[in-house]
Amino acid sequence: MKFSILTLFPDFFTSPLQESILKRAIEKKQISVEMLNIRNFADNKYHSIDDKPFGGGAGMLMQAEPVALAIESVKKINEKSEVIFFTPSAPEFSQKDAYDLANTPTHKIFLCGHYEGIDERVIESHVDKSFSIGKAVVTGGEIPALMCLDAVTRLLENVISKKKSHERETFSVELYEKGEYPQFTRPEIWRKKKVPNVLLSGNHSDIEKYQFENLKNCTVLEKNCILFREKYKQDHQINKKIKLEKYSKNKNCRKKYAELLEYKADNNLNILEFTIVEKNSESDILKNIKINIEELDFTNTNFEEFNMICIEEVINNL
What we know:
Blueprint: E1 2-7, H1 20-27, E2 32-37, E3 50-51, E4 61-62, H2 64-75, E5 82-86, H3 95-102, E6 108-111, H4 120-126, E7 129-131, H5 142-153, H6 172-177, E8 189-190, E9 193-194, H7 204-213, H8 220-231, E10 240-243, H9 244-247, E11 257-265, E12 271-279, E13 284-292, H10 303-316
Parallel strand pairs: 1-2, 1-6, 5-6, 5-7
Antiparallel strand pairs: 3-4, 8-9, 10-11, 11-12, 12-13
Helix pairs in contact: 2-4, 3-5
């Protein structure tokens, strides 16, 4: 996979690209990374690319033209390039985004802003996706670009020798998205503190369950959404018959059933969206049903109750 990084400070990447996984991936030609200095596209002898913002305000702003020319110079060679811009106002970059980028073999152009940002017009006309690295402001887009480059590279085929290093059998993306779980190494007993027995058992299913149950910074609601997602296999769109009479108190539903084709949650876990085929004697009806979980009561809800509430809400919308 090829990456082009458009930046005012190409030397920022020199050391990171000569270390660890990124270095090995470049040496094995699994990725290629080129740097383009945006200043080289300025039309003045000082290579100045910034100016004062209209309407006033603190600091300087990167001008649209040199940024546009830098992007266009790359796209002349790689027409199907994807331009990714890093800004604090964008959605937060997640492990799911890393998987999506890694599984899309298009050439990636990382646009690194600086100063107070970039003229909005070139962002609107030339940028395909935008990400932030959280609710924090850093000096420039170089740090987020490096993080994104590393996150995507390590997911590419054969970059990491053991696939299990970045995938789990059941909750692969979720384990990475929702935080770290406690980890331990030798010795087995350190200052009278013992490693949990389950991690010494060799039972991979029990170990994974322990890791999932002990995810840090993961709420009960988030865990229930993950479990629900796994239960109905939405990623693979496997037909899962929901026998409505098993869940519903509505007598009118007892002789009908539906097939759940797909289930997904938005990034903030506010909306659950279901694709349902309602089956009856006359015809099959395809329906899209959205549930706003903020409107439902999931207080202190375990997974079985969560499952029942969600399915009941789906049935009420049939």
